[in-house]
Amino acid sequence: MSEQQYQLVITRQGLDECISAEANGIRVPLKWVSAGDRAYLPSPDQTRLHNELQRVEFSEYKDTASNQIQAVAKFSGPQQYPIRELGFWLESGTLLGVISAPDITLNYKPANGHCIQPFTLDLSTLPKDSVSVVVGTENLNILIDEEMMMDAVSFVRSQVVQVKQAHIQMTLNHQLRQLQRVIQQPESHRDFDERLHQWEAR
Description:
This protein is α+β, with helices and mostly antiparallel strands and 202 residues long. The protein has helices spanning 12-23, 146-184, 186-201; strands at 9-10, 28-36, 52-64, 68-75, 81-83, 85-90, 95-100, 107-109, 115-122, 131-133.
């Protein structure tokens, strides 16, 4: 799914509920994600998906800049269907917004399998900090922020350096052991002395 091309369309009822919550100094809980198999241009007047097939809790989310939320939902079970519409539901049961587009398949839910659906929700048209995401019991731990990624990259690089240093040390130790064997062998001493005399006689 192209998160930049298929944006979230906020419903009028969802917007009204967020405005009311902001006026009362509270946040509305965003609790469910639903999927259906109809593709169309979403309308702000929608109150449901055209053909909802499954509804699940959020598996994970994190806030990003510009009043956006990155989130993940996991669809499981025996059903199989193309995911062409996604709905996002407040705890009150109000449809906050819809993602869909004509003739576009966003993802596919296989039979007796899982579909991990990531998405970015642009909430910039809503009052700031008027929505809070409620994560369900199954946290997938997929989303990683930039700081954690940089820490991981730095750790891997340090491990690579240590491995290279260890390899160099092992090579030097091997060469040192070979040299010690040569020094400890009397025949090698004689060969060395003979070559030295030959060289001096030149």
